[in-house]
Amino acid sequence: MVNDTIFALASAVGRAGIAVVRLSGPAARGALASLRCAPTSPRTASMASFKDPRSGELLDDGLLIWFPAPGSFTGEDVAELHVHGGRAVVDGLLAALSGINGLRPAEPGEFTRRAFEHGKMDLTQAEALADLVDAETRAQKNQALQQMGGALKDLYDDWRVILIQVLAHLEAVIDFPDENLPQETTDRIWVRLRNLEKAIAKHLDDGGRGERIRDGIKIAIIGPPNAGKSSLLNFLVQRDVAIVSDIPGTTRDVIEVHMDLGGFAVTVADTAGLRAAGNIIEDEGIRRALMRAQAADLKIALFDGDIYPTLDAATLSLIDSDTMTVINKADLIQGDDHHLESKENTLFISLKTGVGVDTFLLRLQ
After folding, report:
1. 62: which strand partners?
2. Domain tally for the chain?
């Protein structure tokens, strides 16, 4: 399989100005000859006419870039064919390549696998490459680029060196028990092991931050009916995705919206108002709301400022360290101004007048 020559569309599928078809393997140069073209200087783009190997029909005029082994992405001979991105052009070129002896379509991820097998990247960098291709936000992109740069590899390599040194010392103690090695030497080894254990534990105990950045942060908006949960969702996504009504219980199912919030991938869920419902449908909506709240990375507990501080018991039971308490309709709160001062875990806003909204967004980000 590794000795095969593979090809695939390297750019996105669909109509585009330019499409890139990549070949990798020992038969890549021969495939170019079959297409009636030949590489010029390595890593230099040159004009080329690609023709059908059988009929001689012109497939397209484009650019050809040649990367001889081992100075390529995969470590093998690699050719990139840059053609116009119309479907007929791409399909015709792929069909022509499939008819050349010694070539076959690449399997998913096979170019990256070959790069790994030829020592061009390690597994952490291969994972980061997939994350970079899938990145939709600035935070996802930055995390993937940092990992591709070898940050994680360097960390693991440092740990590996420490373990090898400790292992060598322990083997010496076992093999030469009569040598009477200094006690301070053994003590230093134990100190290094304990420090390494702490470093690994700290690395793993990050609250799943890396996974949250990669997979997206789940936010659930919870609270009693008519607190403004649907209005808050519409405000966050800057469009009407949830029905806003003065009738309690309007939202009965969970409404999810994916968005980029301050460079982070976020899934915001508007849930049914928590109360003692009066019908089966609303009961089911409340059950789903509770489930979504329990699965969320962050909960926004939203309350109606008109009835604050009388809070709903069902919602209060969900408030924990991962909850941001927000009092909406702050313009309706009666009393001294100090009631409107946003505290560490409680914010006062008015989606109607805009009071406190900027502070809320900054705290959320």
Report:
1. 48
2. 3
Instruction: Report, as an integer, the average pLDDT of 23-46.
Output: 94
> What is each CA distance from 17 to 12, 84, 89, 134, 202, in whole angstroms?
11, 6, 11, 21, 47
Domain ranges, residue 173:
129-207
Least confident of 173-182, 251-260, 269-278: 269-278
Q: How far apart are CA 138 and CA 234, in angstroms?
A: 23
Which of the listed residues 90, 120, 150 is the one where a domain comes to its end?
Answer: 120
- 281-302 pLDDT, tens digit per residue, is 666 767 777 788 788 888 888 8
pLDDT score, position 2:
59
pLDDT tens string 217-241: 888 888 877 778 888 888 887 776 5
Instruction: Name 180's Cβ contacts closer than 8 Å, sequence gap at least 6.
Output: none
Tokens of 322: 């991962």
The answer on 256 and 336 residing in a single domain is yes
pLDDT in the model for residue 47: 96
Alpha helices in the chain (DSSP H): 28-34, 87-98, 110-117, 123-134, 138-148, 151-175, 183-204, 209-215, 229-237, 280-295, 313-316, 357-364
Helices vs. strands in the chain: H and E counts, helices first: 12, 12
**Contact (CB, 8 A) for 300 and 232:** yes
Domain co-membership, 69 together with 196: no
The answer, yes or no, to whether residue 132 has pLDDT greater than 80, is: yes
For 67, 135, 249, 268, 290, the CA distances from 127, given in Å and listed in that order, are 24, 12, 44, 27, 34
pLDDT at 104 over 90: yes
Are residues 69 and 97 both part of a single domain?
A: yes
- C-alpha 85/C-alpha 15 separation (Å) is 6
pTM assigned to the model = 0.66
Report the CATH number that the domain containing residue 329 is assigned in CATH. 3.40.50.300
Domain boundary among 186, 207, 228: 207
CA atoms within 13 A on the CB side of 151: 9
Question: Could you give the angle at the alpha carbon of 231 between the alpha carbons of 335 and 222, nearest 5°?
Answer: 80
Q: What is the mean pLDDT of residues 16-28?
A: 96
99: CATH: 3.30.1360.120
